Amino acid sequence: MKKFLSLLLAGAAALAISAPGYAGKDLDAIKTSGVFKIGTEGTYPPFTYHDTNNTLTGFDVDIAREIARRLNVKPEFMEVKWDGLIAGLDAKRFDAVINQVGVTPERAAKFSFSIPYTTSQVVLITRDNNNTIKTFADMKGKRSAQSLTSNYGQLATSYGASLVSTDGFNQAIDLVATGRADATLNDRLSFLDFKKQRPNAPVKIVAEQADASKSAVLLRKGDPELAEAINKALQELKEDGTYARISKKYFGVDISQ
């Protein structure tokens, strides 16, 4: 009996010692490999997209590169359609998703989030000659161009709209501009950047939600050390002016204000 109790105590002690190492396993693996694998869309300007030289760029991409630099590792971007980003993180294809992932209770129940790094309003976008949709309530019975598993898709459905599946922001806008969809819900910052690039596009904002949405780095649960390291990097970005510089590059203003 005494021997059995000794074995139990030894096992408990071993578990207690190994627990912290297990908790930090993702951060340890990133540090060991020297690579931070990041899931992103690549089709969502100005956050993550390809420039005229087909180089992956964008606000989120620059933020991700700065996080990796402050972790003393190299960023490796893995481009996946929106509907596959969360599944890819779950399957451990990458270490994090940095792609304007909205913070929701449903996601927080299964995944971890960093501190938010952007805050913006949801806007309702229609063709410029559409006079039937003026409020979010007017979406009932209309066709909304959305990524099916996005926050925006869920919100459009809650207003009674049917969804027209898209691969990203640009396709959603094109569907609205050509009349194949009646509207789309999306991020105000994305729309302002789009209109800066294509001022003559026949689309307009007709309504804006009062409540702001927050986006953060999405992580698997079970590694608070990785979340803490990313949070530290994000705080440093804001404190040393890097965040303001990246903001002005893409939006013309510091969007942290």
UniProtKB/TrEMBL annotation:
InterPro entries assigned to the protein according to its UniProt record, in alphabetical order: Solute-binding_3/MltF_N
Keywords: Signal
Domain Solute-binding protein family 3/N-terminal: start-end pairs: 35-254
Record bears the keyword Signal: yes
The keyword Signal appears for this protein: yes
Signal peptide: 1-23
Domain of life: Bacteria
Entry similarity comment: Belongs to the bacterial solute-binding protein 3 family.
Protein name (database record): Amino-acid ABC transporter-binding protein HI_1080
